[in-house]
Design goal:
Length: 62
């Protein structure tokens, strides 16, 4: 009886551990993906600002 209960507890603990690792893996993956997308967005904004400044400078040169 108690051995069966211990085995059940062990399987539940392993299942919880797997869920825990999957959950934190998903959070880590989501955070890293959002950081990467933010970096891409930042690069695009910088390129856009450089393009605008070039337009302004070429307008001043004329």
């Amino acid at each position: 009886m108690s051995e069966e209960r211990q085995a059940k507890n062990l399987t539940y603990r392993r299942l919880l551990q797997d869920i825990y690792y999957l959950y934190f893996g998903a959070i880590f993956f989501g955070v890293s993906a959002s950081i990467a997308s933010l970096r891409c967005l930042f690069i695009l904004i910088v390129i856009y600002l450089i393009w605008i400044f070039k337009k302004i400078w070429s307008f001043h040169d004329q």
